[in-house]
């Protein structure tokens, strides 16, 4: 029996389709029934709606240990996709609770219930920091505690430490570190907000590099790694390193709208994050553009995907293949 956490999110929902198409027995965690509607849409997208009924849904919360006890009965493998994504400094405690403590709970349950193997979905944000004159980040790049990181990056790195603890205690583990994941099903969340903003005529772009990947590639690599004998390894999942300018132009062309036309240089982004802070302070709204985000919009480092290519012989989708779902998604609301 396979357990999927974060099953009602982008990666989790597409993973469910993949597992059920392969005739796997699957348990999936959910917190409220409303969230299952988006999962159903993903199954419809894949022309696999009848398979949706085969999922064993369990209402639980990874931060609530008692709710996990029944969840892990008869489970032999776990895909840990659950996480909280936010770059608002006000969400630090929530990020630590879900990403670090929640992962620790999952790892502890895996050990207590004799789970054979876990695949943990991390992020490129948890990879290391480049030294002077370096330009490419790999799985071996060291994390520098003196380097400024977002709370999200820190908690995803902390979550990985919990998984490695499980590995030291005998649990088989693989970790994947995806870039920005794009895919069908959640037009009002995550990476799809980028597409939605472009649709609305977002005018700004920068020339920093962006690491992107299709949700289908993430799911394919995860399942292949879990079926393999690979243990105790992490893999960067990135299809392409492209400029934000190229990404935004590509999306605008696919959506048949005007391309962003204002180059956001370092001065403009510095003004932007300060204005965002001020409006957040005055109006009590969540941060949308932080200092860390402003800095990352000008990064020129690249992420190397050669390790996963060598391990699986995998070929990632091109940028045009990644966004084929756009024509079937609703970004006009």
From TrEMBL:
<protein>
    <submittedName>
        <fullName>NAD-dependent epimerase</fullName>
    </submittedName>
</protein>
<dbReference type="GO" id="GO:0004029">
    <property type="term" value="F:aldehyde dehydrogenase (NAD+) activity"/>
</dbReference>
<dbReference type="InterPro" id="IPR001509">
    <property type="entry name" value="Epimerase_deHydtase"/>
</dbReference>
<feature type="domain" description="NAD-dependent epimerase/dehydratase">
    <location>
        <begin position="2"/>
        <end position="234"/>
    </location>
</feature>
<dbReference type="GO" id="GO:0005737">
    <property type="term" value="C:cytoplasm"/>
</dbReference>
<dbReference type="InterPro" id="IPR036291">
    <property type="entry name" value="NAD(P)-bd_dom_sf"/>
</dbReference>
<dbReference type="InterPro" id="IPR051783">
    <property type="entry name" value="NAD(P)-dependent_oxidoreduct"/>
</dbReference>
<dbReference type="Pfam" id="PF01370">
    <property type="entry name" value="Epimerase"/>
</dbReference>
């Amino acid at each position: 029996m396979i357990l999927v956490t974060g099953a009602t999110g982008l990666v989790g929902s597409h993973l469910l389709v993949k597992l059920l198409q392969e005739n796997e027995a699957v348990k999936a965690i959910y917190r409220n029934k409303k969230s299952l509607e988006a999962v159903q849409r993903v199954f419809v997208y894949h022309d696999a709606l009848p398979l949706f009924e085969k999922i064993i849904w369990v209402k639980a919360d990874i931060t609530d240990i008692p709710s996990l006890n029944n969840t892990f009965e008869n489970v032999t493998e776990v895909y840990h996709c659950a996480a909280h994504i936010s770059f608002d400094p006000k969400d630090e405690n929530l990020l630590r609770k879900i990403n670090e403590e929640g992962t620790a709970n999952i790892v502890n349950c895996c050990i207590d219930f004799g789970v054979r193997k876990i695949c943990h979905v991390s992020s490129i944000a948890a990879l290391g920091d480049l030294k002077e004159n370096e330009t490419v980040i790999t799985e071996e790049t060291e994390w520098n505690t003196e380097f400024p990181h977002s709370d999200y990056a820190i908690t995803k790195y902390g979550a990985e430490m919990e998984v490695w603890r499980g590995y030291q205690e005998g649990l088989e583990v693989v970790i994947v570190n995806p870039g920005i994941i794009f895919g069908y099903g959640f037009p009002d969340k995550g990476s799809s907000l980028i597409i939605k903003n472009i649709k609305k005529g977002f005018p700004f772009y920068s020339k920093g590099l962006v690491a992107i990947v299709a949700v289908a590639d993430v799911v394919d690599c995860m399942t292949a790694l879990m079926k393999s004998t690979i243990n105790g390894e992490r893999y960067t999942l990135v299809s392409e390193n492209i400029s934000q300018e190229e990404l935004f132009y590509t999306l605008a062309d696919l959506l048949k709208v005007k391309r962003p036309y204002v180059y956001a240089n370092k001065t403009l982004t510095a003004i932007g994050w300060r204005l965002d802070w001020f409006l957040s302070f005055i109006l009590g709204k969540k941060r949308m553009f932080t200092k860390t985000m402003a800095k990352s919009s000008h990064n020129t480092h690249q992420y190397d995907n050669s390790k996963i290519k060598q391990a699986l012989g995998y070929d990632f989708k091109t940028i045009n293949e990644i966004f084929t779902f756009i024509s079937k998604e609703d970004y006009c609301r």
